[in-house]
Amino acid sequence: MEVYTNENDQVDAIKRFFANNGVALVVGLVIGVGGVFGWNYWQSHKTNVLQESAQKFEAVNTQLRSGSEQSIVAAQKFAAETDDVYSAMMGLELAQIAVDKGDLANAQTALTNALAKAKTADMQDLINLRLARVQLAQGNADGAIASVANIKSKSWQATAQDVRGDALLHKGDKAGAKAAYAQGLESEGSQSIRGILTLKLNNVSNS
């Protein structure tokens, strides 16, 4: 099922970033706890927990590639029991598997749970974008528009407006869709997404 498109390179880059830097990044979020001893203890504890999460994530994700029901259950258990960025990343993986199977309800559940575990704005933007795509594929245009509205980063705006335009068009709002596609073209975006936006803008303008 073609629900996720265009942002795959950015998704892969985010996954690589967290795989390589997730521990240091999340530990950095707790700076300011106070006290040299308290900070050192907290830093050591968080680092150990995140290293363990990273190792478990890699192990479970490797199993998940088999596509077996057992591996999916293990991945769901990891995502539910882990409260850090690796849980969010696992949620993205589970959502992709569900989308590939045409199971949009489970995809939405996985993404909603992942959003609650996401620790950075960029990860939240990515999950909101994918959630909006799934909602739109379910015919929930209003839900998709609401999810897209939560996307803040400039680097995601072209793709976000692409989805928003599609949702507005689904609601029969051609003027709104046209404005969204035009806004997307004014935002940062790859050549591929700009080409898609241009094509959609031309189509809705001539319809």
TrEMBL record:
Chief location of this protein within or outside the cell: membrane
Keywords linked to the UniProt accession: Cell membrane, Chaperone, Membrane, Transmembrane, Transmembrane helix
GO MF annotations, alphabetized: protein-containing complex binding
Annotated membrane topology: Single-pass type II membrane protein
Gene3D superfamilies for this protein: Tetratricopeptide repeat domain
Transmembrane segments: 23-42
Subcellular location: Cell membrane
GO CC terms, sorted: plasma membrane
Highest taxon of the lineage: Bacteria
Domain annotation Ancillary SecYEG translocon subunit/Cell division coordinator CpoB TPR: ranges: 15-205
Family: Belongs to the YfgM family.
Listed PANTHER family: ANCILLARY SECYEG TRANSLOCON SUBUNIT (PTHR38035:SF1), UPF0070 PROTEIN YFGM (PTHR38035)
Protein name: Ancillary SecYEG translocon subunit
Organism: Providencia huaxiensis
Lineage: Bacteria, Pseudomonadati, Pseudomonadota, Gammaproteobacteria, Enterobacterales
